[in-house]
Task: inverse folding
């Protein structure tokens, strides 16, 4: 089993490659969705990491995969510029998946 990272910048991709992750760069929504689909259907991939910026471009698809697909695990990570407001992201995730509004 291996990990795969989908990043919008080379710095994040290169850092994750040093940690043993394969990966690919994407800049547009269409590119991100194509790479995400490919990674999610790869038999040897156990974890797919996607940067926040790309996850925001395809938010509905990422949420659908996170809530309905257990393998591979899809994780949204901050890129080199840091994290977005995690409190709002967690609250939105709980509201959409469980129905709890905080």
Result:
């Amino acid at each position: 089993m291996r990990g795969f990272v989908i990043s919008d910048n080379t710095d994040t991709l290169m850092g994750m490659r040093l940690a043993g992750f394969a990966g690919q760069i994407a800049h547009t929504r269409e590119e991100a969705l194509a790479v995400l689909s490919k990674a999610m259907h790869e038999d040897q991939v156990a974890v797919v990491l996607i940067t926040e910026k790309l996850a925001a471009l395809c938010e509905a698809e990422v949420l659908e995969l996170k809530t309905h697909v257990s393998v591979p695990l899809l994780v949204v990570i901050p890129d080199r510029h840091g994290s977005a407001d995690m409190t709002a992201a967690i609250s939105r995730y709980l509201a959409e998946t469980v129905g709890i509004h905080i």
Observations:
- Residues 2-97 form a domain with the Rossmann fold fold (CATH 3.40.50.10580).
